[in-house]
Each structure stands twice: as structure tokens, then as C-alpha cells.
Amino acid sequence: GCINVTTMGQERDGRDELICRTMEKYELDVCAISETKWRKSGKVKIGDYMVYYSGVKEEEKKYGGVAVAIRSKLVGCVTSWQPIDERIMWLSCSAKNVSVTFVSCYAPTNEADDKSKEKFYQTLDQVVNGIPKRHMLVIMGDFNARVGDDYETWKGVMGKCGIIGEETTDN
Predict the structure, then answer these.
(1) pLDDT under 70 in the chain at which residues?
(2) Which residues span the domain enclosing 54?
(3) Quick check: is 23 in a domain?
(4) CATH number of 19's domain
(5) Model-level pTM?
(6) For the residues of the chain, what is the DSSP string, one character each?
(7) What pLDDT, in 10s, does the model give residues 87-137?
């Protein structure tokens, strides 16, 4: 699963627990979380999940922030994880001779300057290229993209759920 929470509340004000209860409701074992607005990086147990997170430096204004929440019963499968910055992190799991790496992303909005977008996609490219080829790769997150409603041109590529009248963005 994947969810943009727009602020998760590092102060443990209950929003984090509500989000984890929602993940339980939908029976999600792994979920990418974007826009946590948490500082630093680390891991914290919330409900039935271990949440690995990557955010801004302590002295910076809160923005962005990504996390991967994994059900407690699967934490023993986690082999490594790496916070990259406030927009990208990854977590690897192995079980029964299968390795999977989950990448959690939060792309700059379409209104962001081109330099910020280029930096994000270059970093994501470096991260993806650094994942061992034998791993299954799952990239999850909020790419802040709009796909428009041109279903006929993109038949077989996009579904019929584009926003009518919405322009496709360059994200």
C-alpha cells in the first residue's frame, strides 16, 4: 500500500496510530508513507507496525518525509534499510530465498523548480541502480503527477480514472 498522510505527528498525538489502524483495516503488511513531516531518521513501533522513516535534519523546517511501515510479524525479515533524504528511503526484506526491496518516495510537486525535480529523479535513479539485481523491486510513493484524461491515447497504459479536464504534468 501507499498513503500520503500530509502530516503524521512525530509528537505521537494519535495521528500515527490512526494511520496504522487504517493499514490494519485494509490488511496491509507493507505500506509506503509520504509527507510525514518527521525530522531525522529512525524506526518506531506504532500499533502492530514497525515504521522506518527518513526526514529532514533536526534544524530544518518540517516538510516532506517518507517512511515504510511493516507489520511486526515481518520485522524479522528486514535485512537492511537506508534513509536517503526527506524524499527517498528503502527497506529490504528476505524470506524463503526471495529478497524484496521497497523504495518509498515523495516527489516534488509540479510547481517545484526543475532543479529540485531533476535532483529527486537522479537520486531515485541512483538508488534503484544500487539495488541488487536479484531483488524484486517495489517503488511506492506519491509522485505528485497528474495523468489527465486522455485514456484513448494511452489505452493499456493508464486506466479510465484520470481527472477530466486535468492537464498531464511533467512529473
Answers:
(1) 8-13, 58, 60-62, 146-151, 154, 156-171
(2) 2-142
(3) yes
(4) 3.60.10.10
(5) 0.83
(6) -EEE-S---TT--SHHHHHHHHHHHTT-SEEEEE----BSEEEEEETTEEEEEE-B-TTSPP---EEEEEEGGGGGGEEEEEE-SSSEEEEEEEETTEEEEEEEEEPPPTTS-HHHHHHHHHHHHHHHHHS-TTSEEEEEEE-----TT-TTTTBTTB-S-SPTTPPPP--
(7) 999 999 999 999 999 999 999 988 889 999 999 999 999 999 999 999 999
